[in-house]
Design brief:
- The chain has 1 helix and 9 strands; from the N terminus they run E-E-E-E-E-H-E-E-E-E.
- The protein is mainly beta.
- The chain has a single domain, classed as Pnp Oxidase, Chain A (Roll).
- The longest helix is centred in the middle third of the chain and has 7 residues, at 79-85.
């Protein structure tokens, strides 16, 4: 109804965000970020004299999936490939990657921090002669844990 008080508790929009790749080129703008998840692997257990004929489940080790970043391809922008080429037998340049969801003024409302991230996969764009789309490349990052902060 007109004149009714508005509820100021709205979900956050997800289209305004920034990504900082640590000492890599931190000015890169991304089209999409996915894979910000964490899970606890269940441990099933049943002791021998349990009156229940089923297992109980307890939380086990925490596990994080890989984070996927997508961005447009620009002329002379080979930073992902250079970072990936640095992988040698068990040596890699690990980075702290910070992903921020921003409000309309550009202030962070949520921040995801990936510890010791490194590229596991890079996918170049597909090429089609009858397409009018932007060339997009994808990088997949493995990491050793994710933390979340608000505000």
């Amino acid at each position: 109804m007109a004149g009714e008080a508005q509820d100021n508790n709205w979900p956050l929009p997800k289209f305004y965000f920034s990504v900082d790749l640590g000492s890599q080129d931190s000015t890169t703008s991304f089209q999409e970020v996915s894979g910000l998840d964490i899970e606890a692997q269940p441990i099933e257990y049943r002791h021998g004299d349990s009156p229940e004929f089923s297992t109980i489940k307890m939380p086990g080790l925490k596990k994080s999936g890989n984070v996927t970043l997508k961005k447009g391809i620009f002329v002379d922008d080979n930073n992902f490939w250079t970072w990936f080429e640095a992988i040698k037998m068990n040596t890699i340049q690990r980075e702290t990657v910070v992903i921020k969801l921003l409000d309309e003024e550009g202030n962070p409302t949520m921040t995801w921090t990936l510890a010791n991230a490194w590229p596991t996969k890079i996918t170049g764009t597909d090429l089609k002669s009858d397409s009018n789309e932007v060339a997009v490349e994808t990088i997949e990052l493995a990491h050793e844990g994710i933390t979340i902060e608000n505000g």
